[in-house]
Specification:
The protein is mostly beta strands and about 550 residues long. About 0% of the residues lie in helices and about 45% in strands. The protein has one helix and 40 strands. The strands form eleven sheets. Strands 26, 27, 28, 29 and 30 form a five-stranded antiparallel β-sheet that branches. The protein has a four-stranded antiparallel β-sheet with strand order 1-2-3-4, with no helix packed on it. A four-stranded antiparallel β-sheet has the order 5-6-7-8, with no helix packed on it. A hairpin with a 2-residue loop joins strand 3 (about 40-45) and strand 4 (about 50-55). The longest helix has 7 residues, at about 135-140.
Length: about 550
């Protein structure tokens, strides 16, 4: 097990940034190689000590940034310098767009890949069986490499080009470059000879068919690229953190076929809204979150609703976030519709609803109120709560002049969680200083909204949802000595039997509901970072989804009784 390993050797590196470490082929003078910013070093291991020697670029080459390495089985050919006998040679990739071949620690030859784009990943394969003949090894030897612009090239035993692929040619519908250059940026690549596996900086993994071992028509063209899965094998959010998570409300009539039953939605700091199928783990719809004259916007909150019998559902997406790198964004809100064919359309760009603080939570009251308007509550990091009315026919937030929107300014800290009661006329909200406040939304003009309300007055309320980590039903979810940053998310199950929480230690915890006193819980682990959101599916207690903050993972959990 990895936690039981012990260090057998160590050595001191230089001050330059190291991008990779790679073992060298058996029989080499050196044990392994490392490289990075303007350097490459070759290492020996003796008596528990690692010692390095710098790679020699020669008089014609200047040291350059080395991005990766692989051992490629090569044979002699007319255009190879110094390859007289078959065997493994070290090939490295460079930020200058070249591949370098080395003998020992001496640079021998370069091979142009592409100009202006660094080669960011490479791998090789050959028949490595001890009983395999040299001819067999040479016949199966392949080297694959990819760059930051989505170009993949395949080379044979003599570094002759066999095939060229471009990721953007997989399919326009699968590879919408408007999502960002990160989807083209190749970070990892591997091959088994028949297939090529490609991982991108945009958190996508593709598996394509490799060229034949003996192509009869020369170099394969871009049109011959074949995605073996007709979609990314793996995909997800790819920048900073992931917080936003929502399920659609279930229909009251269970006999009606529900096209949205198996879906859920996520939004992230990468500025994308993604609709997932919880059974197949596929992204069935996706949209970019942009604002006019601003560009791509982070998002950390989302809410989902619909009217009974309607063939469209409505999603509200909160904009803005803080990733720490001077990337604080002003808040805002966008409205989308999703139809039964999974077509995602933005119906309100939110130009008239800019906020000074980023949006941390959104909740729809699922039954229309106020003359059939949807009621939408928004929690902001400018210490305010906003109540909007959304037109269920035009799918737009109504104009402020209609007096159906209101701003609540009771909090003295960033508002973090909000929930409606069962009738939609009261709202509870929590803030970053662990305050729990209540708000009266009754009246045509919200005339009681700023009135101070005692928790005792709301003690017998039934709540439409419960996502607050504070309150009488959830007192027992806190461990001794815990503070406000320990539990990031809480959610009550559809049957109201359970409470699920996500914490800063990366755990999912399940409690009985209510939990007014400290109690035992069932815990699940999987995230490598803090869990920023957790939601039960709307129709069952047996399915949960969690979002990891910095690991940006979406995990689906099954609750199984014993």
């Amino acid at each position: 097990h990895w936690s039981k390993v012990s260090m057998v050797a160590h050595g001191r590196g230089g001050k330059s940034k190291v991008s990779f470490v790679h073992w060298l082929a058996h029989g080499s003078e050196f044990k392994f190689v490392s490289g990075g910013e303007d350097h490459i070093e070759f290492w020996t291991v003796s008596g528990g000590i690692c010692r390095s020697k710098k790679g020699l670029f020669g008089g014609e080459k200047k040291p350059t940034t080395i991005t990766g390495a692989t051992n490629h089985f090569m044979g002699p050919s007319d255009h190879q310098e110094g390859v007289k006998t078959p065997g493994f040679r070290l090939i490295t990739s460079c930020a200058t767009g070249y591949l370098y071949r080395w003998d020992g620690r001496n640079f021998r030859q370069d091979y142009p890949f592409t100009e202006n784009f660094p080669v960011s990943a490479l791998a090789s394969i050959c028949e490595s069986s001890a009983n395999a003949s040299t001819e067999t090894k040479l016949g199966t030897s392949r080297l694959v490499a990819g760059n930051t612009n989505g170009t993949v090239k395949v080379f044979d035993k003599s570094m002759k080009l066999v095939a060229v692929y471009h990721l953007e040619n997989l399919s326009p519908s699968l590879f919408d470059t408007s999502v960002g250059d990160w989807r083209r940026h190749i970070r990892s690549i591997d091959t088994n000879g028949e297939r090529i596996l490609i991982g991108t900086k945009g958190s996508e993994v593709y598996e394509i068919r490799a060229p034949s071992q003996s192509p009869s028509d020369g170099v394969s063209t871009d049109e011959k690229i074949l995605n073996l899965h007709h979609r990314p094998l793996v995909q997800g959010h790819y920048k900073h953190e992931l917080w936003g998570l929502a399920f659609p409300p279930q229909l009251s009539d269970k006999s009606v076929e529900d096209p949205f039953k198996d879906l859920f939605a996520t939004t992230g700091d990468d500025g994308t809204l993604r609709i997932w199928n919880r059974r197949t783990n596929d992204v069935v719809a996706q949209a970019n979150l942009t604002m006019p004259n601003v560009g791509r916007q982070m998002s950390r909150a989302i809410a989902w609703t619909r009217k009974e019998g309607a063939n469209k559902s409505v999603l509200a997406v909160g904009l803005g976030g803080d990733a720490g790198r001077r990337s604080k964004g002003n808040g805002g809100i966008k409205i989308f519709t999703l139809d039964e064919h999974y077509e995602l359309v933005c119906t309100d760009e939110g130009e008239a609803h800019r906020l000074t603080g980023w949006v941390s939570d959104l909740k729809f009251f699922d039954s229309p109120v106020d003359d059939e308007m949807f009621r939408l509550a928004l929690a902001s990091h400018d210490n305010s709560v906003l109540i909007y009315s959304v037109d269920p026919e035009q799918f737009k937030i109504v104009s402020p002049q209609d007096k159906k929107n209101v701003i609540i300014t009771k909090h003295n800290a960033a508002v973090t969680h909000i929930d409606f009661n069962e009738y939609g006329n009261y709202l509870q909200s929590t803030d970053a200083e662990q305050n729990l406040l209540y708000h009266d939304l009754s009246g045509d003009k919200f005339e009681n909204v700023m009135k101070k309300i005692s928790p005792r007055d709301c003690a017998d309320f039934e709540w439409s949802s419960w996502t607050s980590p504070l309150g009488w039903p959830v007192q027992g979810i806190w461990s001794d000595g815990a503070d406000a940053v320990n539990i990031n998310a809480c959610h009550r199950s559809p049957s109201k039997r359970f409470l699920a929480t996500g914490d800063s230690a990366g755990r999912l915890s399940l409690f009985n509901n209510p939990c007014p006193k400290k109690a035992e819980s069932v815990e699940g682990s999987g995230h490598s970072s803090h869990v920023m959101n957790v939601r039960f599916a709307s129709d069952t207690d047996e399915v949960l989804v969690t979002c990891g903050g910095k690991d940006r993972c979406v995990m689906r959990w099954s609750l199984m009784s014993h």
